[in-house]
What we know:
Layout: E1 11-13, E2 16-17, H1 21-30, E3 37-44, E4 47-52, E5 55-59, H2 61-64, E6 67-68
Antiparallel strand pairs: 1-3, 2-6, 3-4, 4-5
Amino acid sequence: MPLNYAEIGETKTIQRVGGNEKTKKFLEELGFVAGATVSVVTSMAGNIIVNMKESRVAISKEMAARIYV
């Protein structure tokens, strides 16, 4: 399922990252790679904030839809 459907507080493991090459590269540079764990902190106005590798990252709902957990 896409990351934007994960419940707040849930910890999930990334299965794959979709999108075009530019999008994949951008997300990989932020740490969104297969096997990494993410935890949804909050969701506001369609955008989500996730905990990843001891830091928080805010991404749009469009980007979150390309990350499958």
